[in-house]
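Bench notes, afternoon.
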Amino acid sequence: MTKEGAELVNPYDSETGKGKQVERMFDSIAPAYDFMNTAMTFGLHRWWRNRALNALRIGDGFRPVKALDIATGTGDVAFKLNDMNPEMRITGIDLSEGMLKVAQEKLGKRPADHRKSITFEKGDSLDLGYEDDTFDLITVAYGVRNFENLRKGYSEMFRVLKPGGKLCVIELSCPRTPLTRTLYNIYSRRIIPAVGSMVSGDKRAYTYLPESIAAAPQRDAMTGIMKECGFSQCRWKSLTMGAVTYYIAIK
């Protein structure tokens, strides 16, 4: 399959596969990830997460028993789902052992009755090691633009999601109005790489960030790919002048 969009944007080089490079990148920035995530979004990432997850209407006609959080990173979405419903069994997977280590450390600080509902494990979003129709809910926050093959990733999610189950994707996006987009480009392409380099020691990780955002499908283009992979009732909503967009779809 011919690569396109963000699939062509690699963190480091063109010699190795994107998946391996993404794994290496997140291992590199794992210790600084939570700090940088809060700093570069001015804490808005929590509000974005909450808006997206609230749109699922969990507990209001939709009561997922098993959830899969893909590209779980340090567990931010998994922990919020656990807060929303401590009885839900949540599996968080990620390529990066460095990120999973931070997630496990955070899990150890949560109440014992919450810890038993969450499992973190290394996993590949393009080759999910689960049976068909396993999960009621799948979430992916800031991960799909890092997929080496986006359609394969969505097809795998569709396969392991139960009929009637929901998919929620949160992804950074580019503002569409000229003035906002100009300010966004200055911030994302100049300020974030400089700060990211100082804090994490990996400047390339934070120059890759705006490059991959700009190259990834957004809004109608993203829901179009979801539909190609079998999902229905696909919808999106942009927040904060278009800097982030969340997507909801159903199997």
